[in-house]
From TrEMBL:
GO terms for molecular function: DNA-binding transcription factor activity; transcription cis-regulatory region binding. This is TetR/AcrR family transcriptional regulator. Residues 30-49 bind DNA. It comes from Actinomadura barringtoniae. Keywords: DNA-binding, Repressor, Transcription, Transcription regulation. It comes from the Bacteria. InterPro entries: BetI_C, Homeodomain-like_sf, HTH-type_TetR-like_transc_reg, HTH_TetR, Tet_transcr_reg_TetR-rel_C_sf.
Amino acid sequence: MAHVPAAERRPQLVQAAIELMAREGLEAGSTRAIAAELGVAQATVHYTFGSKRDLYRAVMEQMTADLVDQVCAAAPENLDFESSLRVMAEALWEGMRKQPGRYVLYVELATHAYRNPEMLDVIAAHQKHMHETAAALINELAEQTGRSLRIEATAIARFFLAGFDGLAQNHLTAGETHAAADLQRLVEATVALA
């Protein structure tokens, strides 16, 4: 493969790592396998990231950015608070349903971080970003719809995202059986909390 500047190579490697690990699992994401996925020398992965921690951080950052972009793109205009929240929740759900490997990879990275204290800041940064983004969206929805929030948006965001994670994990083990109804109940509970 022709020489590509590091600034261009890095996102390519991150995307290759995400695709590989979402398909085959976190443990499959060796530097050798990631290099092979993109068709570059293994040294390129080492040079670009330096450590697995740096690679995992880059993967989490990209997955977070992708998720935020997906939900923000779905943010509707001219709907009431509950309907708007439902549309965004459904967009988040659809992303998880269409790419379950990415969600499983997130869970694997989180579990890896819990067992490796030097990685906790990676998952903590992801969660903080998700909470802040969800809170900003909730505040924006409240403002657009003329709704006053009973509690701070960050608490509402944490509640919704924790519930969503539970539903997603249940979906991955039990399938679609109650997914739509459960997601609707989560939205309703979130609106009631707000």
